[in-house]
Design a protein that fits this description.
The complex is a heterodimer. Chain A is α+β, with helices and mostly antiparallel strands. Chain A has 20 helices and 27 strands. Chain A is about 30% helix and about 25% strand. In chain A, the strands form six sheets. Chain A has a seven-stranded mixed sheet with strand order 3-5-1-12-9-10-11, with helices on both faces. A six-stranded mixed sheet of chain A has the order 8-13-14-15-7-24. In chain A, helix 11 packs parallel to helix 19 (about 695-710), helix 14 runs parallel beside helix 15 (about 495-515) and helix 17 crosses helix 19 (about 695-710). Helix content of chain B is about 30%, strand content about 20%. Chain B has helices spanning about 5-10, 35-40, 55-60, 95-100, 105, 110-115, 120-125, 130-135, 145-150, 165-170, 240, 250-260, 275-295, and strands at about 25-30, 45-50, 70, 80-85, 85-90, 150-155, 160-165, 170, 175, 185-190, 195-200, 210-215, 225-230, 235. In chain B, helix 12 (about 250-260) packs antiparallel against helix 13. The interface of A and B includes residues 29, 103, 654, 665 and 729 of A.
């Protein structure tokens, strides 16, 4: 495998967001709120404006002066009246040096009246809220749906199982912190930033600042990992505001501690799941979700309605009721984390499925196979399921673990879980292909975020359509003023959606060449630095097929566009809020074997296998790497990753010492098994593979621990202490 | 007058929740004689380092506020010598050198195991015994085994040298009996000594132990010594366990009683790494495992 970004990154030449410096640049620093909740009386800045090196200081009182209309009233750059979470930026300073900026920011003494803070979900709702809570203060999203007669099914059921699961806050832990450099020049606002979504930042930041999107140019850099944490405007509005105030470029960046304390991490939840079974058939299910939203929940209806669906699907359940609440707390805003909230919901669902199977004395995989969706089945909202490899993936996992069982030592446990995800989400995108005598350039609007989906994935699509080798294909980057629009590198959509645009453009390109040749081109070839067309009559040099304009003006240019068209849902089942249809139905089955120390509860995952409904594999090394990375990330969520909050809203573990991601020592061998043939809408039938690898891992580990010990752990992560508590070997108060 | 350790011990204003900090600046000196080193660390605003592995972290956490860093790496304190039945470890000797010494693993298996438990290999190439002693972290992986081995700390100061038992030297969390301007020259332990160190962590690699347990049979002692780390502000001995362990090869029921008694009457900490109840459970499990690991097998008849 070659990745064209490899040498530059290995040699340190690739410029990431944290590397960007421009001449005359000032350094920015944010002023952080010292309380988790408070009423702002005054943020005095005149004192710090005269401190050494300070070029600008901006706070809530400056918004009206610097921004059209003072910026977005609902989402002001700085809060005008109320601090909603500890360390919320309430002002910002730009100075000659980083030290001067920090010193000035630290010198700001805001006058803030502290108010009672709500940190823990269960403080707000010690009991499950009833429907009357839906319109109460602090509920920022409420979703409710029902179908069939769940109450009747529960009354007549042979078995009713009710369980409550809890999940913890988790960080994305991208290796590169957020950073950007902003300038305002001749009425154009410009920001260079590390982002998964250059166009998303443009839309979001323009709205926050109250400026036209056309007046804001966003230029992406190389991105040192995103995982959902770099998907919207974050530091950019602060930096742009400082640049506007100072009249000079301003750099603003986070250190790693700020990344933990302020980064948009995923927050805790409480999930209640109840299932009614007759014989061995699931007849009905009720689910409840309490989602800690922090100060705000981006895309709140989507986030809540989309998440809760994962507590039902991908299983045939005749009757259901589901209700979810997004609850505002005084923590930083909720942020998406690779497959937002699917690993958490799948942990609850798939633990619950195993517990049902255990009570019914049914093999857990057989139980899933009896209920899992197949193509053509209706979803909970009556959408028809598309090609779906869940059954094949489960059967492959069953065969694999049968082999494991023959050599697993006594005391080891094997667990399996089925994850479901909808990939290739509907958002649109466009690319331009520019074919010259020497290269094929893919012009597009994203930056490579590390997975390879842009720098390698798009190239692999073009390779496969045109026949050109990778060394003759180049991915071009530019800013939002010139690049074709695309929605962003998120949602497992890059190869599936943007790749589809490349596929279409490449086919158009071949069609044009065919017309000019009078015969369909077979493939393009690349030899001795030049591109040629292979037809059934032999090779033709490309130069003979280009017009004079094309030869002199940068090549033959064609566009390709993609817009996903997900299905529709039966809205009559929706009682409140918004639910969404699925795009490509994508299954991810994970199997693992664990060793549990029966005395200490310590869990060690000794081997694992991942079965992925990929449609087709576009590039095998990249697919394998994506799955291996996702499994490692899932193991962290399963075993060690947990944000700990004090009752006054302090994050107690804002660093990599006490927020523990796996080291290589905790990651076992990972067998990668692509399940091909259940085609999605992506190029050649590919489905997305960015997020699925992480989804089923925590649930599979939980099921393996239960198999090893007989004890069910109802909370993520499965720390050793939680395992011994589940084994009833330990009582008394839990950790601080 | 400001010594690294002293500032750590007395600075109660450490603000581990502050967000971004300005970069720190300091001057750096590396004296080559003990006299010069003592003068240098006696100068106000100075902080002494050996491996220096915690220096930037301490600056970052505002535990120290020094403008001059004094490296002790120019001193002749990187020795590992054996004399009079004692192993003497120079205070600035990197831990990796102890780990790689072929005889330590044989003569003092507990010491080897505890050194091996510290951080990762790159860190052990820098981190030192002296640094770990003055840091006096409650969760140190080295201190329990040194305590169980009844280690002696050899200290030099402007007014002469002195020796202290480790038990007297350790005062509390990040607090030791070292006067401003004093430095640790070496640590000594008796050898050979059957011994073991076992630990439990949330994540096995590169994490801080929730509990560490060391056991050692020191020549002349009437029982196995048992030391516990990570449970209270400083590593402690467990006399209630030790009294069951007078035999060189204790019986199974004596080991069980010792394991159960090990944390009797001591209130352990509940913090973000473990609850008090879980620490009690871990101590009893790990005391038994440490003894099982350390007790020499019966000689073949």
């Amino acid at each position: 495998m070659t990745r064209s970004d490899g040498p530059a990154k290995l040699e340190g030449r690739a410029e990431f967001g944290t590397d960007v410096e421009v001449p005359g640049m000032l350094w920015g620093a944010l002023v952080y709120a010292p309380v988790a909740h408070g009423r702002i009386r005054r943020v005095p800045l005149s004192g710090v404006r005269s401190m050494p090196g300070v070029a600008a200081a901006v706070g809530p009182d400056d918004l009206d002066r610097l921004l059209p209309g003072g910026g977005d009233r609902n989402r002001p750059v700085f809060p005008r009246t109320e601090v909603m979470y500890r360390n919320q930026p309430i002002a910002a300073v730009a100075a000659r040096t980083a030290s001067e900026a920090r010193a000035a920011a630290d010198a700001v003494r805001a006058d803030i009246e502290e108010l009672p803070a709500l940190i823990d979900l269960e403080t707000r709702f010690p009991e499950w809220p009833g429907p009357e809570a839906a319109r109460s203060e602090g509920i920022i999203a409420h979703v409710h749906a029902r179908h069939g007669d769940p109450d009747g099914a529960f009354r007549s059921a042979d078995l009713v199982l009710t369980e409550t699961y809890r999940t913890s806050g988790i960080h994305q832990v991208a290796i590169e912190p957020h950073a950007c450099v902003a300038r305002v020049d001749g009425g154009v606002w410009h920001v260079t930033t590390t982002t998964q979504t250059p166009f998303g930042v443009r839309e979001d930041a323009a709205e926050i600042l109250g400026i036209r999107e056309a007046d804001l140019v966003v230029e992406g850099t190389w991105v040192g990992g995103g995982f959902g944490g770099k998907g919207a405007a974050f530091l950019e509005p602060y930096a742009l505001l400082l640049a506007a105030a100072a009249g000079r470029p301003v750099r603003l960046g986070f250190g790693y501690r700020e990344e933990f304390l302020l980064g948009r991490s995923t927050l805790p939840s409480i999930i209640r799941i109840e299932t009614a079974v007759s014989g061995r058939r699931i007849e009905a299910r009720r689910v409840r979700l309490l989602l800690d939203s922090g100060a705000s929940l981006p895309g709140r209806d989507f986030a809540t309605g989309y998440s809760i669906g994962f507590l039902l699907g991908p299983y045939k359940i005749p009757a259901f009721e589901m209700e979810g609440y997004a609850v505002r707390t005084n923590k930083p805003p909720f942020g998406p984390h690779r497959a937002p909230f699917a690993p958490q919901c799948v942990f609850a669902l798939e633990s619950h499925m195993d517990e049902l199977a255990r009570r019914l004395a049914v093999d857990p995989i057989a139980f899933r196979l009896e209920h899992v969706w197949a193509e053509g089945d209706p979803t909970q909202f009556g959408q028809r399921v598309g090609p779906f490899g869940a059954r094949a993936a489960l059967e492959a996992a069953r065969a694999r673990i049968a082999a494991w069982r023959t050599d697993a030592p006594a005391g080891h446990g094997i667990g399996v879980a089925l994850g479901f995800w909808s990939t290739g989400t509907g958002a649109g995108g466009e690319t331009r292909l520019r074919l010259s005598e020497r290269e094929l350039v893919i012009e597009q609007g994203e930056r490579e975020i590390g997975s390879g989906s842009v720098i390698r994935g798009l190239v692999a699509v073009a390779e496969r359509v045109t026949g050109l080798p990778a060394e003759s294909i180049r991915v071009a980057y530019s800013d939002t003023s010139t690049a074709p629009y695309d929605t962003g590198v998120f949602g497992s959509r890059t190869v599936g959606a943007l790749g589809q645009a490349v596929e279409k453009a490449a086919k158009t390109l071949l069609g044009i060449l065919g017309e000019r040749l009078g015969t369909p081109p077979v493939r393009l070839e690349f030899a001795e630095g030049r591109i040629a067309v292979l037809t059934n009559k032999g090779l033709r040099g490309l130069e003979t097929l280009l017009t004079d304009t094309e030869r002199t003006a940068g090549g033959l240019l064609v566009g390709g566009r993609h817009f996903g068209t997900p299905g529709t849902i039966d809205e009559s089942r929706v009682l409140d809020g918004t639910f969404y249809p699925y795009s490509d139905f994508t299954a991810a089955v994970h199997a693992c074997e664990v060793n549990v120390d029966p005395e200490t509860g310590a869990v060690r995952v000794v081997r694992s296998a991942a079965f992925h409904d990929v449609g087709v594999v576009v590039d095998r090394p990249m697919a394998v790497a994506q799955i291996e990375g996702g499994v490692a990330m899932g193991l962290g969520e399963a075993l060690t990753e947990e944000a700990l909050w004090s009752s006054d809203g302090r994050l107690l573990n804002p660093g990599l010492l006490d927020y523990r991601i796996p080291t290589l020592g905790e990651v076992p061998s990972i067998e990668v098994v692509p399940i091909e043939g259940f085609l999605g809408a992506g190029p050649f039938g590919a489905k997305g593979l960015g997020e699925p690898p992480v989804i089923a891992v925590p649930a599979a580990v939980a099921n393996a621990v239960a198999a090893a010990t007989g004890a069910r752990v109802f909370e993520l992560p499965l720390t050793a202490e939680r395992v011994v508590r589940a084994l009833k070997r330990l009582e008394g108060p839990a950790r601080a | 007058m400001r010594v690294y350790l002293a500032s750590v011990a007395t600075d109660g204003k450490a603000n581990s929740h502050a967000l971004a900090r300005p970069p720190v600046t300091f001057s750096f000196v590396q004296p080559t004689s003990v006299e010069a080193a003592l003068r240098a660390v006696g100068t106000p605003g100075s902080v002494a380092i050996a491996g220096g592995t915690d220096l930037l972290l301490d600056f970052d956490n505002q535990r120290i506020a020094a403008d001059r860093v004094v490296s002790l790496n120019g001193l002749p304190w990187k020795h590992l010598t054996r004399a009079g039945g004692r192993l003497v470890v120079g205070s600035t000797l990197p831990l990796r050198r102890i780990e790689l010494d072929p005889r330590v693993a044989v003569d003092l298996p507990g010491l080897y195991q505890s050194v091996h438990a510290v951080g990762g290999v790159p860190l052990r190439h820098r981190a030192t015994m002296g640094g770990n002693l003055v840091r006096a972290s409650p969760a140190s992986d080295l201190l329990p085994v040194l305590l169980a081995l009844e280690a002696t700390v050899h200290i030099v100061g402007a007014y002469g040298s002195r020796a202290s038992s480790l038990d007297d030297f350790l005062r509390g969390s990040r607090s030791v009996d070292l006067a401003p301007g004093e430095l640790i020259e070496s640590v000594s332990v008796p050898y050979p000594a059957p011994s073991a160190y076992v630990w439990q962590r949330v994540r096995p690699a590169k994490d801080i132990s929730q509990v560490g347990v060391a056991v050692a049979r020191v020549p002349g002692a009437g029982h196995w010594n048992v030391a516990l780390g990570g449970v209270v502000p400083r590593p402690i001995r467990s006399p209630s366990a030790e009294r069951h362990l007078t035999r060189l090869r204790p019986k199974a029921e004596e080991i069980t009683r010792a394991a159960e008694a090990a944390s009797e009457g001591v209130a352990f900490a509940t913090d973000r790494r473990a609850s008090e109840a879980y620490r009690h459970l871990l101590v009893s499990v790990l005391v038994r495992r440490a003894l099982d690991k350390a007790i020499p097998p019966e000689a073949p008849s």
